[in-house]
């Protein structure tokens, strides 16, 4: 199982969920997910 660092930020005013996944092996690479309701 790979090790991931999860950063979850919730913007209530915009009803937006911001999730950033960073791999420990490659700190320069970031997968950025934005989910809007």
TrEMBL record:
Protein name: Transposase
Biological source species: Flavobacterium xinjiangense
Lineage: Bacteria, Pseudomonadati, Bacteroidota, Flavobacteriia, Flavobacteriales
